[in-house]
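Chapter review. Work through the record for Quinic acid utilization activator before attempting the end-of-chapter questions.
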Amino acid sequence: MAGNEGGEKAKRKVSNPASASQSTADAAQHQGNPAPAKRQRVSRACDQCRTAREKCDGIQPICFTCASSNRDCTYTANPKKRGIQPGYIRTLELALAWTFANVPASEDALLNLLVQPDGRALLSGKDQDGSYKLHRKWRKSAFCRDIDRVLSGADPVAFGEKPASPNSPDDDQLDDADGASIIAATPVAPSSLPSGGAQLHRPPSVAGGSESSVQRRPEPAQSPAAISTTQPLAPVNRPPVPLRPRLRVPSNLWRLFDVYFAYTHCWFPIAEKHDVLKISYSYPDDGLDISANSPGSGEHAELWSILAVASVQEHAANPSSAQQSEDGARLLPGDIYNIARSLIPSEQGSHEIGHVKALLLLALVNIGANTSRAAWFLIGYAARLAFVLGLHNAFQPQGRFHGNEDQSPRGKHVFLACFALDTIVSAHLGREPFMRREHVDRVGLIAEDGLEEWHPWVGCPDFRPSSLNPAQYNRSPVHTISTFNHIIRLLSIVNDVTVGALDAPSGANAYTLQLATHISLDDNGICGPERRAS
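Structure tokens for Quinic acid utilization activator:
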């Protein structure tokens, strides 16, 4: 058997001696006649050879083809370089960074896209059909066209003008509806598209916007609250997003301060008046460049939320006041609300006590607008921030606080305010509050003394219905702190009932008794003798 196999192998080796000799001859022929050199592509051909589509060696000032044809040879054109232009990726990175800085929620939407399996497949190219259509839409975009033109040395096409080049068949197959369906099929972060029921950015009663020459942040053409999350993101032709304008305080700033400290601060003392005034003085005439991520943005968010509350009150008392603008710098309540909301950072941002105050004041606006669900969201955000910042334990500070209560004097006020609004709105909605009476017992009430307790109360002129009652201007003590403490005591009982701490029927009787005890106030209570006499 072994001998037969060896013979068969030998036969196979010499089975075709003619072909073997032919291969040897071909190899010898190739060695004698080497293959011609590969054609080299020149970096730039002359204008005449490009027009005639002739071979050009690119020699300047006269190429060989033009010299042989006895014709002119020029290199005046600036042809586009083939392939990806130098700096293309860097330009895209800078454009994306600019988008993150100037288009709200754009980065959050992309991050949310990356955490979804379908979104990762779409952006990584694994979803071939979706990625292909999305890429074709990018190639059709005016921005892609202009980047290509700028990097190749040409001028970009003016905005609104369409290039005269015909579309490819692939482009014709991908219309705008296809591109929009690709994006709409991917879940978007809730922060970028709030639901219709949770109108966090613009309460219905203060949704008006002014078209004056005030420098303020650009707002979308349609309120975010009016956008349904079930609708696809249809493409909209709009001008480029301008750089963030500088904020200027409204022309009726001092009137709004008077309204707020007369009718809101007297029972909701979370603001430090001298700090608010100090921040307002930091705004120059040409405006201030400030954003939610800027250091100290909490103080500015507090300022604008104070103005939002006061502007709603002023507009309700004097509806014609918004049209009485001397210099065109008066903002409507909706404008001020949106500015205050834009100064509160996202969940991943750096927060300060001013952001907690701003959330509470914006919740008051929503309560007044009867959008309790939106107020509930804002209060929950503020309450959790209060715990993160350590407001629940002023003498063992956490987060950004360093020192005792004297160094953050409004910490206790803000924490108790979170408890008050959380209890009120939760009871109204029939939900269990996040904060408990035990939190109030741990922190304690505020000492009923000082300037805020005994400062005379003065209303605002021409502010109805206050202007109809001259007796309110007798400069009796405002009793701000004692009023606030009694509110906390009453709401502590409501909180107990809401969380089920008082069982029926004895719980209902105890509830009524405790309410009667607190409502029956003596001369040392919420209503002093001076105010009773008035």
